[in-house]
Every structure is written in C-alpha cells, then in structure tokens.
Design goal:
3 strands; alpha+beta; single chain; 83 residues; Mth169, Chain: A
Length: 83
C-alpha cells in the first residue's frame, strides 16, 4: 500500500447562484474594487488515501465526493492525486 495525497476543488455549478460570492463581490465594490467581478466561492479539501495505485486512489476520492464531500446536484469537483 502506498499513500496518495488528494486535493479536491469544489465549486458551484455555473447555473447556480453563488450568494456568498455575490456578497463578497458587493463588499469588494464598496471597498472601491469595482474592477473585480464574477466572484465565486468554493471549497478546498485535502485527503490522504492508502491505495495500491494512483488510479485506485482517484476512484476512492471520486466515490467519496459523489457520496458525501460534494453535492453532485449543485456542485462540480476536480480531483488531483499526488504521490
């Protein structure tokens, strides 16, 4: 068994209103950062996975995202696996 390090970037799907992102954008504009727009807020998750291969580690991370870590109805996720 080998240890693999997974990083997962989770974002709301493009068609979903990002209320938190809108609030941050509004606050930035009030601080005179009008040049900043389309703010989207996401999540970042790190995992250590014991597996026999990178492919198995990816599959386990993907299963965990689909079952618990991300909400597949409104969120997209991107997984990166490193040794």
């Amino acid at each position: 068994m080998q240890k693999f390090y997974a990083t997962i970037k989770i974002t709301l799907r493009k068609g979903i209103l990002d209320v938190q992102g809108k609030a941050v954008e509004h606050a930035l504009h009030s601080l005179e950062y009008q040049m900043i727009s389309n703010v989207r807020i996401g999540k970042f998750v790190e995992l250590v996975i014991d597996a026999d291969s990178r492919e198995i580690a990816f599959t386990k991370a993907e299963e965990a995202c689909k079952k618990l870590i991300a909400n597949p109805i409104i969120e997209d996720f991107e997984i990166t696996i490193k040794d």
